[in-house]
Design brief:
InterPro entries: MFS_dom (IPR020846), MFS_sugar_transport-like (IPR005828), MFS_trans_sf (IPR036259), STP/PLT_plant (IPR045262), Sugar/inositol_transpt (IPR003663). It is found in: Membrane. Keywords: Membrane, Sugar transport, Symport, Transmembrane, Transmembrane helix, Transport. This protein has a domain at 147-368: MFS general substrate transporter like domains (Growth Hormone, Chain: A), CATH 1.20.1250.20. The protein has 18 helices and no strands. It has helices spanning 2-9, 13-41, 47-71, 77-87, 90-98, 106-111, 115-125, 129-143, 150-155, 160-178, 181-194, 200-224, 230-253, 259-278, 284-292, 298-327, 329-350, 362-366. It starts with a helix and ends with a helix.
Length: 368
């Protein structure tokens, strides 16, 4: 909230960057804490739906930013961007009010000896009181193992199961960003211009369509991640990303010969790409990562994997234009398609199905 307001009032580049840093710190907290909290508060039968809502509303925010760009395009330039940043202070204001109605994580309560409060939360968030008691017993058993040497256990002397979990978590977060989603989200206007679209209103309209499709298809993952399972959705998503990125690259390769058809093909490929991304690799890495980490390592493991995610995101964002100048824009998307194909192989080889299992049962699954 503070960062958004400061950006709207900023008068220099340094002031804008400082305010952006403040918003990034707050966003970084949410990217680590929200998936962990969602996984820990949710019953196993609904964990996929509830955990994927984080990414769904993240994309609602992205969609609203596209809509605001379109709606504010008619304002004078020196006014429009300030209004846009000021509007960004409203969502965290609602969050600040709503967080007071949220119960504390039962696992956090158990780790501090507050078992009665933990059971009360579990009764509210379980399908039956019997399930609440079972979850409490599993949490208490795992809490005994929790200690202060989490980083050492993860990075210095990991067990076979912890090493396998870390491989899955870090791999998912890496492939989510390395497949080029932020190149599309941030640079889709450049892609559409490269494909032959010249009207700014048409480009902004196509960008809004990207946000709408991306948000709508996350609902597929939200509704089916518990019913179908994490693994099938991730496999379908990786395959779809590879095919649609290759299609986009091919469309851009022939852009000079048929402008209208190329633009239509490029827009269709981008929309298909964000749809494929949103049914699996968009929302599910955070869900999968937070649920497979052992309780004693969950906070540190999630923070570590999210650091990998953000570093790769930054690399893709900062290198896209330079990479496009070096290997051409179609070359970039062929590269990202290859990464998506590697992501498919990674999921197929390394990731077991976790749908319907309790969080405390994950270590048994990954020890096999």
């Amino acid at each position: 909230m503070a960062g958004a307001l400061a950006m709207s009032l900023g008068g220099t580049y340094a002031a804008l960057m400082a305010a952006r840093f403040v918003t990034s710190v707050g966003f970084g907290f949410s990217r680590v804490i929200a998936p962990v909290y969602n996984a820990e508060i949710s019953p196993a039968s609904k964990r996929g739906v509830l955990s994927s809502m984080f990414d769904m509303f993240l994309n609602v925010g992205i969609l609203l930013s596209y809509v605001s760009n379109y709606a504010l395009a008619g304002l004078p330039v020196h006014v429009g961007w300030r209004v846009m940043f000021a509007i960004g202070a409203l969502p965290p204001a609602f969050l600040a009010a709503g967080v007071h109605a949220m119960p504390e994580s039962p696992r956090w309560l158990v780790m501090r000896g507050r078992h009665a409060e933990a059971r009360a939360v579990l009764v509210r968030t379980s399908d039956t009181p019997t399930e609440a008691d079972l979850r409490l017993g599993e949490i208490m058993q795992q809490a005994v193992l929790a200690g202060c040497g989490a980083w050492k256990e993860m990075l210095v002397r990991p067990t076979k199961s912890v090493r396998r979990v870390l491989t899955c978590v870090v791999g998912l977060q890496f492939f989510q960003q390395a497949s080029g989603i932020d190149a599309i989200v941030l640079y889709s206007p450049l892609v559409f211009k490269k494909a032959g679209m010249s009207s700014n209103s048409a480009i902004l309209g196509a960008t809004v369509a990207v946000g709408v499709v991306k948000t709508c298809f996350i609902l597929v993952a939200t509704l089916f991640s518990d019913l179908v399972g994490r693994r099938p959705l991730l496999l379908a998503s990786a395959a779809g990303i590879a095919v649609t990125l290759a299609s986009l690259a091919l469309a851009l390769c022939v852009g000079a010969t048929s402008t209208l058809s190329t633009a239509a093909c490029a827009v269709a490929s981008v929309l298909a790409f964000v749809a494929a991304f949103s049914v699996g690799f968009g929302p599910l890495p955070s869900t999968y990562s937070s649920e497979i980490m052992p309780l004693r390592l969950r906070a540190q493991g999630t923070a570590f994997s999210m650091t990998v995610n953000r570093v790769v995101c930054g690399l893709v964002t900062l290198t896209f234009i330079s990479l496009a100048d070096w290997i051409t824009m179609p070359g970039c998307f062929f590269l990202y398609a290859g990464v998506a194909a590697a992501a498919y192989a990674f999921v197929y080889v390394h990731l077991p199905e976790t749908s319907g299992r309790s969080l405390e049962d994950m270590e048994v699954l990954f020890a096999k």
